[in-house]
Amino acid sequence: MLEIENLHVSIAGKKILNGLTLTVEDGQVAAIMGPNGSGKSTLSYVVAGRADYEVEQGSIRLDGIDLLRKSAAERAALGLFLVFQYPLEIPGVATMTFLKAAINAQRRARGESDLPIPDFMKQVRAAAQKLDISQDMLKRPVNVGFSGGEKKRMEILQMALLEPRFAILDEMDSGLDIDALKTCAEGVNALRGKDRGLLVITHYQRLLDFISPDIVHVMSRGKIVKSGGPELALALEASGYAEYAEGAAA
Amino acid sequence: MIALAPSKADEAFATLLPADASPSERASFAQFRQAGLPSRRVESWHYSDLRARLRTVPPLAAAPDDASLSVARGKLGASARLRIVTVDGFYAPDLSDDVSKIAGVAIASARETDFLGAAADPLLDLNAALSRGGFVLDIAAGARIDPVIEIVALTGAQTDRSRFGRNLIRLGAKARAQIVETRDEGFAGFGDSALFIELGEDAQLDHACRCRETAGVELQSFTATLAARAKLRSVALLAQTPFLRRQYFVSLAGEGAQLHLGGAAVLGRNDHADVTLVVRHDAPHGLSRETFKYVLADHANGVFQGKITVPPHAQKTDGKMMCRGLLLSDEAALSAKPELEIFADDVACGHGAAVTKLDAQNLFYLETRGIPTIEAEKILIDAFAADVFDALESEVLRDLLRVDLSEILGEETLV
Ligand SMILES: Nc1ncnc2c1ncn2[C@@H]1O[C@H](COP(=O)(O)OP(=O)(O)O)[C@@H](O)[C@H]1O
Ligand SMILES: [Mg+2]
Questions:
Q1: Of A50, A91, A109, the CB nearest to B370
Q2: Does the structure show a pLDDT above 60 at B256?
Q3: Which of A19, A154, B241, B252 is deepest in the core (most CB within 10 A)?
Q4: What is the value of ipTM here, to two decimals?
Q5: Which domains does chain A have, with CATH numbers?
């Protein structure tokens, strides 16, 4: 269970999150919808542990553990995973080397031994096939020269291999055509389960046609301003964010 | 030029010249004495003040006796590769494999006359004057040598020594070979070694140099001459260098010769590594690529000086020189001085130098996958440095360097 309470965050003196409170239960798929600039990516980075944000107040707990006292890598080892809105390209680092380092780092943090290479290869191959990721992509450096869709599929591949307890998907749909969106959504849906919480962040309702949420939260100016069932997303699609936009009466 | 009074070290070298020195050794020595140890006032030595650094000159290393051979043997682990071993700069057949059992390969003790011209450089003069006991490795014309030959430079001394290795590798026309040089002579003493490479027409050599523990003060001179269409690919991995200057003098003498030089220096502590290149395109249609990378932690100091010269007759020259530094500490520094001297009008030449830090976003991305900060940093450092190995065509040599680099990064605490 992810519990965020009264979170206040600023960067470079600019306040971005203003007392955000949110709980996502195990097994739940929660969606956050919000206009651009409302702080959605900031929220995902702060939960994942990026160091350049200043957390002024509030708490973030995963299964009762205080995440704010943990490094980004420790959070990952506790089972947190972030699908980046803009996955990074890392020249010179082979994708397979990266995947192996990530899997084994998390295993070591849990006191397990490294995954034997043949098992690793088998797992990667199986997961890649489901996501339509070619052997050629796996041979390239991490995300280098990948299309937007390929990068997102690679994110879901990592998620499938690392089997997180809780995943945040930051605008997974951005830069995806409909086929790529379907492939990624299928990958995510396959990872739904009663033990795993998902927080799906999006600007558009479209994504939620493919990953149907249990609950929808609306975020505006750094906090959750409204929560409801899936019908809330449809209402937003019809009315737009005008009433939540910067400057609108609260 | 301002004449400097001889330093103590200059004087000390005077006592090292053996009584039985040949006339040409005496001539080289006189040239060295005239120039003296280079100081920062000499432009090409501006960043590596050898005169200030070399305070004492240890005794000349003698040809290895049983005791020093056994010291060296102790350091020489088992290897599946064929090895040529030098001890304190002397070719040591007793410790070496018989590479001449490979068809097309011959090895012999070097004679003075084997070495053709060398660049005008005081340390090359000193090396010519004082070196004894080097080898000449010959690869016959047309021979294609598949097994990797390894040259291992060790010390057998128990105390500081001055070492002057001087070896020659010659490839006949169309010959091909891959050679790894492992320099592990230890921290103590003074080293002034010289390697000469001559490539015949259409010959191809891949050469990797692993510099593990260099002397307290060490000079390495690499001189190469490429005949028409010859290809030389050479990459050096430098680490643990208290004070190293590695200087390259390369002439692309024949038409269409190709040179790929690369280097990665992984430096910490007060390490100082200076790579100085003098590359001369002496014929048309030559191609040269030089890429040197420096990982600089603690108070490390990296120096890159590269000069590509293209005389008027070397039309259609294609040259690119690049130097990059990865700064891991605010106290570390890189001085880069790439230069082009172009007198031909139809050429494509360029150079660049850049210094970066570890990318915080990339680091964060790796960390969110559970990779702890230190490991994530090493992954990025490795990626930064390892791409210079791609200058080599030999997969085996590239892998050797990759393994070495990850071992170095595993041992060093850089960040
Ligand atoms: N590193 C930063 N420095 C300054 N302002 C930032 C930084 N990151 C985000 N912001 C600002 O914070 C606000 C929220 O951004 P973001 O979290 O990316 O919103 P969203 O993901 O909802 O579009 C924006 O106004 C953005 O310009
Ligand atoms: Mg965003």
A1: A109
A2: yes
A3: B252
A4: 0.96
A5: 2-245 (3.40.50.300)
